[in-house]
Amino acid sequence: MWYKEAVFYHIYPLGLCDCPKENDYRYTVSRINECYSWIDHIALYGFNALYIGPLFESVGHGYETTDYKKLDSRLGLNDDLKKFVKYCHQKNIKVIFDGVFNHVGRDFFAFLDLKEKKWDSKYKDWFLNVNFNNNNEYNDGFSYDNWGGYNLLVKLNYYNQEVKNYMLDVVNFWIDEFDLDGIRLDAADVLNFDFMKDLRNLCKSKKEDFWLMGEVIHGDYTRWVNNNMLDSVTNYSLHKALYSGMNTKNFFEIAHTVKRNLDMNLFYLYNFLDNHDVERIYTKLDNKLDFIPVNVMLYTLPGIPSIYYGSEFGIEGKKEKESDYSLRPALNIDDYKNDKFKELFVRLNKLKNESKILSYGTYKEILLANRVFVYERVLDNNQIIVAVSNDDKDNYISIDSYHDEYVDILSGEVFKKSNKLDINIKTSGALILVAKGFNNVKPLDIKIDNNKKEEEIKEIDVPAKPLEELSIDELHQYILNKMASNGVVTEYMKKTVYENNHKGSLINWAKSFR
User: Fold this and answer.
1) Which fold has domain 103-155?
2) Using CB atoms within 10 A as the burial measure, which of 20, 55, 71, 107 is most buried?
3) Could you report the per-residue pLDDT of 40-74, keeping only the tens digit for each?
């Protein structure tokens, strides 16, 4: 299956394309066309799969869907999306969409009908636990189940066959209309299991190699990953272990997480260091020098690696209270033509694409200590040895090996075996050793500034009056003042604040600091 050999690139299009934070549905702007240059970028780097979404009509961040069969007006027309997917396929890049099937937005046609007709709505059983004896903050005259405590996200009732049929028809439409290759199921950890089983049957009947991956944060992943439901889930357990293990100088946490997943035969989980919901890995790392070894592990440990747009450049992104805007920035690819990490990701992608070992090879620990971790991937008597360090000094070790001579694809250094293979893992370093002759490589020339640079925001007095009476500029300054009181304010965070000129959105943002 193609996904076992995939290296994903993840794009949140509403952010990348600098879409308005709120959709008034009146104007259609083909901003998705701005993503073509990013497809050229990821093809050049060697990525072969794209996870993009959410894509379909919504009122805000994209996960409160209004129309499942219409590209979001802020991104363009359905024909724009069809052409975009076709272009990706021409570049040999598979495409998966975000499938937001657990809940809908309040502008979804069936919920609008429920609001208008109440008891008389033929859609009243489309939503879970509608109660006409209660009310809510919208004064609907009824209450309902939602996702995450947000009544903005109305939970669907999959015990109703009409709802199942509707969503299966949506997916059938997506496959036929856009020729997509897979779906990432949003909030799969609370999505109806019977629906996911029916979804699998439909998708596999349309495309045998169609990939279904679910967003699951906690729990036993085998409940979702099995022959009846999903092919993979988001590997949040490894996500946490990777940055935590680096920061606490504890490779045991990482190794234990890998072993636990493999003991459950979970070999193809979706591995990531960051995404649209969590802080950037470069922000989370206490030691910026660990950026290289943590990405080496992402690519070489069992699983399907994914890079979130911009993280290949080592950009920052700190999560703000009640706001993910700083995690989903608008970026211009031309600003990163001199990316210092380019060669690192080109080499990692090249290794993944050209060697089946990282996709199908067995995994075994060779040496495990708090600050040094060495493991191997083996397939058909071919071996890749990976050695990583989060130590503040060099480590000299001797290990068993299959071959007499190895080359490190990152440094170009050659290691020869005497009795054993003697290697030196440098401070916060990484080695990827392959049998000599695999590639002729030059040393990576990457200089990482390990000093956290704080953006000093000069606190400016904001008039002491209700937030609703503040001007746009005053709201900008109010929010920046609050951010500065909480810690570092990056250029991306400042840019996100200044580019938001919707007063209602700014007021809600400002209130979140209280």
Assistant:
1) Oligo-1,6-glucosidase; domain 2 (3.90.400)
2) 55
3) 999 999 999 999 999 999 999 999 999 999 999 99
